[in-house]
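Hi team,

As requested, here is the filled-out complex form for the pyridoxal-5'-phosphate run. I kept the field names the same as last time so the parser does not choke. Let me know if anything looks off before we queue the next batch.

— J.
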Amino acid sequence: MKKFIPVNIPSVNKKDIQSISSVLKKRWISSDGPEVKSFEKKFSKKINRKYSVAVSSGTAALEIAVKALGIKKNDEILIPNFTIISNALAVIRQNAKPILIDCDLRTWNIKIDDLKKKISKKTKAIIITHIYSFSNDMDPILKICKKYNVKVIEDAAEVIGLKYKNRMCGSFGDISTFSFYANKQITTGEGGMISTNKLELYNKCKSLRNLCFGKNQRFNHDDIGWNYRITNIQAALGISQLNRLEKTVKRKIYIGNYYYKKLSKNNNIYLTPPKITYSENIYWVVGILIKNKKVLASKIIKKLNNLGIGARPFFWPMHEQDVFKRKRIFSNKKYPNSSYLSRYGFYIPSFPDIKKTEMDYIISKLNLLL
Ligand SMILES: Cc1ncc(COP(=O)(O)O)c(C=O)c1O
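And here is what came back:
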């Protein structure tokens, strides 16, 4: 293979370009344009929520969601340990206390047994994040949360278009968040969404996104907010991308299943299968986990890069983040599954336009290396 195969190339088609150029021509470019509202409405309909608020990133969506739920200083919030740092940051920015849950080695989502150990009367909320492949097992998780009267934020950034049983991911709990970064199922370049069925939360999120401008006196602000607005240009792209979500998801499933069929025969690696009882796998990324700790993922990534193949390491767990160690955010407890995944997991190119010849090349090199 002569050309380098990157981990991701975003899908952009003629309709996306037309959609963006039409709002440019109309001069509707700021966040105040009609496409933002239309994107929010269409998105709500797609995931079956009453209200949605478009924002500038998935990280911004999480920060707003945590604040909108009224989380305060020293409140305990459960989060996955194996996840993006944005989950922890949203909690820390409200001076609340993140409590980590280890992950499950089969699904890479939170381990329910560990959730049961960590939840207590002090827990105010939980961020349930769907990681890489499958939905979390929402029924038992929500049952536990109900018992402890814990508020639920569902981080569905990686799973737009995935269902838990027959219900869309991102339609559970008090509030849910999404990302439209360039590697997601829908992209607006950068961007995110918050969705909820509660009118009060919706209004709070809208205000927090827009500097909490005063209701009676515009420049006398109601609260400490952010400018986390999305532009009308981004929303125009979002609408066009949303219109082909099912097609994109179908293509990603095809790619994931192709890799799974060819690579799962290799006993030195684990890939998440196409289905488990409660969730299909829409393969946001195709993750490879090295079994038996034979070799570190970082070594394989370097070798793949030298062969012209892009690859990225898995998330680095929250309890091992240098920045959090310096700030003594987490205690010295061990989270063996998160530590294992972060050292032995990586993901390979699986963008919608990847060619079969490129996948075959990647498969052959992986089988040689591992
Ligand atoms: C699970 C999860 N949540 C939140 C985010 C943050 O989204 P963004 O990059 O749009 O800020 C990401 C980023 O990829 C993510 O994977």
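Two things worth flagging: The chain has a mean pLDDT of 97. The two ends are 19 Å apart (CA to CA).

Thanks,
J.
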